[in-house]
Write a structure and sequence with these properties.
Layout lengths: L25 H6 L9 E4 L6 H4 L7 E5 L3 H22 L5 H10 L7 H14 L15 H6 L1 H10 L3 E3 L3 H8 L4 E5 L16 H11 L5 E7 L2 H6 L4 E8 L6 E8 L2
Parallel strand pairs: 1-2, 1-4, 2-3, 4-5
Antiparallel strand pairs: 5-7, 6-7
Helix pairs in contact: 3-5, 3-7, 4-5, 8-9
The structure holds S-adenosylmethionine.
Length: 260
């Protein structure tokens, strides 16, 4: 029997691990959403691995997953529309350092189909140390368990027909902004931006604040607890919360900022 990764249909894990993923904060984030029925569109602006999106069967009538990272967006699209083919492509590989190096090198070449590219991106992340995509993980990760799970994720993306976008946050927020929209924003933490493939600068943090301060809808924003961020969002509701730190095992302070 393949191992099941979740036991409740409304508690789906993300198929991938990424730096800054909200696995340990997703419950706290969802508990702070506006009351059910007060929003009819849910937009995950910095989708990443989608931990908050997958935490519920459905957040709203319209759901949007977005990220500026094209590899990630291609992977999510292939899971949604081609999970079976993607599994077959991934299952042709196994967990070995040479395979990790090969898939990493092939990602830098042209001419791969979307499914072959998504498979290599998935493998590079799965086989790397701490999912950093940079160094071989030297662990016993079982790829067939991971691919079995893609079908569950496909079902989630299909059942409520999640719209998958590939936009910069500013344009995305402008396009989807309505009085009954909820924007869930989890940008790169201030001062850890270098860990992502897409550049995020100090000016982008300011641009995000300037975009969010004028919206018609509601936003919930998560950040690391940082003076610059506290200052930037002075005047909004700021809650300090704590979660376990995946790396050190200690506690890590985060901010949840809302305009409601
Ligand atoms: C902290 S991660 C999001 C983690 C996600 N909430 C999760 O649970 O996995 C931040 C994400 O923002 C994306 N990103 C960076 N710059 C962006 C931009 N200008 N517009 C949209 N997304 C961006 C990165 O590619 C990264 O996936």
């Amino acid at each position: 029997m393949p191992r099941r990764y979740f036991i409740r249909s409304d508690l789906l894990n993300s198929p991938i691990t990424r730096m800054g993923g909200k696995k340990l904060l997703r419950k706290t984030i969802c508990e702070r959403f506006p009351e059910n029925g007060t929003f009819d569109r849910y937009v995950e602006v910095f989708g990443g691995a989608g931990w908050v999106l997958f935490y519920k069967d459905k957040h709203a009538k319209l759901e949007v997953y977005n990220d500026a990272d094209g590899e990630l967006v291609n992977l999510m699209r292939c899971i949604k529309y081609h999970a079976g083919e993607l599994r077959r492509e991934i299952n042709g590989w196994c967990n070995a350092r040479e395979f990790f190096e090969d898939v990493s090198a092939q990602l830098d070449t042209r001419g791969l189909t979307d499914i072959r590219r998504a498979a290599r991106y998935f493998l590079r992340m799965k086989l790397s140390f701490g999912a950093d995509g940079r160094t071989y993980g030297c662990n016993t990760k079982n790829l067939s368990n991971a691919t079995e799970y893609l079908i569950d994720v496909q079902r989630r993306l299909m059942s409520s027909s999640v719209v998958i976008e590939h936009k910069d946050f500013e344009n995305l927020i402008k396009v989807y902004d309505r009085p009954k929209a909820l924007f869930c924003c989890d940008p790169p933490y201030h001062s850890t931006e270098k860990y992502y493939d897409v550049q995020f600068t100090e000016a982008d943090h300011i641009r995000l604040r300037d975009t969010l301060k004028n919206i018609k809808g509601k936003f919930l924003l998560s950040y690391n607890d940082d003076e610059f961020i506290r200052e930037l969002y002075n005047g909004f509701k700021i809650d300090a919360v704590e979660r376990q730190n995946n790396i050190s095992g200690g506690r890590f302070k985060e901010l949840i900022i809302t305009n409601y």
